[in-house]
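Tokens for chain A. Residues wanted.
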């Protein structure tokens, strides 16, 4: 399974893109649209809780909002606010905060979804943008979907993610230099650490606590000083953008 995502500024463009994907033969249950706003009816489980996905799925089953992809649920996402998430995958991604992913059912729902992008989806939503996520079977279909999203006015996640990092880069370079680091040489490793700290299953947990998981994802980088420095800075940045009541949840 492959995943293609696009970031939209206008809801009308995102909805038109979603409808166009269905006309291309993409099944509705493989298209997820995340949109900011709405009247939050459900507060997700906290980030340390491993069970709770059932509540999120139950909320989807009972929700009907007139969303273009059918059933949707409005969720209160810490640090983001109210988000409308279409379908089961939308609920798994944001309704359970990513922390509950791991059980057989949950794994089957999110096969192919890049979990290290979840923090970026949150950041895009916080800025008032919409995120359209599409699962396809192969690289050829991925190229077709990518072209369709671009034609509909989407920014690619890669491009938008790079722009997000550019906005942070000067501050991070300065902080790393103050610790005696060579940012020009170590930036890729530092950025890996920064982004690793933002993944839902890592968020709020200390570096030493999650080192086993980090070794699986970043086997060559995770114990380097640059990675750890980036990780710690990422945690600080994440905490700074969350409201006090969110951090206490």
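Reply:
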């Amino acid at each position: 399974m492959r995943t293609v995502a696009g970031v939209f500024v206008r809801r009308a463009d995102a909805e038109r893109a979603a409808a166009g994907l269905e006309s291309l033969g993409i099944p509705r249950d493989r298209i997820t649209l995340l949109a900011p706003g709405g009247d939050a009816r459900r507060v997700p489980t906290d980030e340390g809780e491993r069970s709770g996905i059932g509540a999120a799925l139950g909320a989807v089953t009972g929700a009907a909002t007139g969303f273009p992809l059918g059933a949707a649920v409005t969720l209160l996402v810490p640090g983001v606010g109210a988000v409308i998430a279409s379908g089961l995958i939308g609920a798994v991604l944001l309704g359970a905060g990513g922390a509950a992913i791991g059980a057989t059912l949950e794994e089957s729902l999110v096969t192919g979804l890049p979990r290290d992008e979840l923090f970026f989806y949150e950041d895009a939503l916080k800025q008032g943008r919409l995120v359209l996520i599409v699962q396809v079977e192969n690289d050829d279909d991925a190229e077709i979907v990518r072209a369709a999203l671009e034609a509909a006015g989407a920014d690619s996640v890669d491009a938008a993610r790079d722009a997000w990092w550019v906005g942070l880069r000067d501050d991070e370079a300065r902080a790393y230099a103050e610790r005696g680091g060579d940012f020009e040489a170590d930036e890729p490793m530092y950025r890996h650490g920064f982004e690793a700290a933002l993944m839902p299953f890592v968020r709020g947990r200390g570096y030493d606590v999650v080192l086993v998981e980090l070794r699986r994802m970043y086997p060559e980088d995770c114990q380097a000083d640059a990675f750890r420095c980036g990780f710690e800075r990422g945690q600080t940045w994440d905490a700074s953008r969350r409201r006090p009541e969110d951090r206490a949840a």
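The chain is about 50% helix and 15% strand. The chain has two domains: 2-153, 161-247.
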